[in-house]
Amino acid sequence: NYLRSRMIALVSPNTNSSSFLLTGFSGLEQQYPWISVPFSTIYAVVLLGNCLVLYVIWTEPSLHQPMFYFLAMLAVTDLCMGLSTVNTVLGILLGLIQEISLDFCITQSYFIHGLSFMESSVLLTMAFDRYIAICNPLRYSSILTNSRIIKIGLTILGRSFFFITPPIIRLKYFHYCHPHILSHSFCLHQDLLRLACSDIRFNSYYALMLVICTLLLDAVLILFSYVLILKSVLSIASQEERHKSFQTCISHICAVLVFYIPIISLTMVHRFGKHLSPVVHVLMGNIYILFPPLMNPIIYSIKIHQIRSRMLRLFSLKIC
């Protein structure tokens, strides 16, 4: 009875409740115990995989190089993305929670969007790293010094979380008169805007500008860096050297695709998929959140020889 009354209160217009109902896989509630198994496995792989990458980089002195420092930044970002959503996604599937408070919702959206911008920034930095390594190898170590890498890391952190603060803070002071039902099993900025009856023009325009100046700009710069890399590689006479140069970029290209394809797909579903089942929207939202953190440690463990050999050595020691 309490749960029923809470749901009625949350879906009623002009409600003053500060709680929001999370959306799972509508119509599949009876299958939640089964659906929770693959999701729990995915989260376990996300957490263990990224922790393992960080452990290998931390404990192997030969990996204390700029390329692997940037990879560690990517692993930390993916790890935090998993931690920021695990409680609500698994909480719904395991029947532990159905709703969250406004403060928790705002905090979660802050970290989700901040970490998305951070992942984009790290991928751009990794593209810059590959550009220097291939196009200007003699100056690589003098350009990417440890102090400069620390400054780059702090810049990424500031760029990712500082500029999203104004619109996120404003969410706290909006009046939410529409039914308090979120469209995902986690909280997003655009979801709260959809439920608000206040003037949201600043948040809408600011968010659009932020996406253009971060995600879109980063994608353009990454593409431009690979045009320069391709031009440099094609000028190399030796076919073996060309192949070696391309091999160092494959893992990064895969990571870029793994990040941007779910974002583009989710945007297309939101923009043109109004007629689609809510389950599709929820599934695409979870792919956007979980696919990059799941795939990145797998990609880098397979494609980068130093990481792969160190992991195999680590597991062989455990087995012995």
From TrEMBL:
What parts of the sequence cross the membrane?
Answer: 35-58, 70-97, 149-169, 205-229, 250-273, 279-302
Entry-linked Gene3D superfamilies: Rhodopsin 7-helix transmembrane proteins
Q: Cite a single GO MF annotation.
A: G protein-coupled receptor activity
Report the locations given in the UniProt record: Cell membrane; Membrane
Keyword Magnesium on entry: no
- Record's Gene Ontology CC terms? plasma membrane
Is-annotated flag, keyword Membrane?
Answer: yes
Which PROSITE patterns does this one have?
G_PROTEIN_RECEP_F1_1, G_PROTEIN_RECEP_F1_2
Q: Where is the G-protein coupled receptors family 1 profile domain?
A: 49-300
Gene Ontology biological process terms in this record: cellular response to lipid
InterPro entries noted in UniProt: GPCR_Rhodpsn, GPCR_Rhodpsn_7TM, Olfact_rcpt, OR51/52/56-like
Superkingdom is Eukaryota
Database matches in Pfam families: 7tm_4 (PF13853)
Major place of localization? Answer: membrane
The UniProt entry lists membrane topology as: Multi-pass membrane protein
Q: Which UniProt keywords apply?
A: Cell membrane, G-protein coupled receptor, Membrane, Olfaction, Receptor, Sensory transduction, Transducer, Transmembrane, Transmembrane helix
Stated role: Putative odorant or sperm cell receptor.
- PANTHER family, A to Z: OLFACTORY RECEPTOR 51V1 (PTHR26450:SF67), OLFACTORY RECEPTOR 56B1-RELATED (PTHR26450)
- Family label: Belongs to the G-protein coupled receptor 1 family.
Identify this protein by name. Olfactory receptor
Instruction: Give the source lineage, highest ranks first.
Output: Eukaryota, Metazoa, Chordata, Craniata, Vertebrata
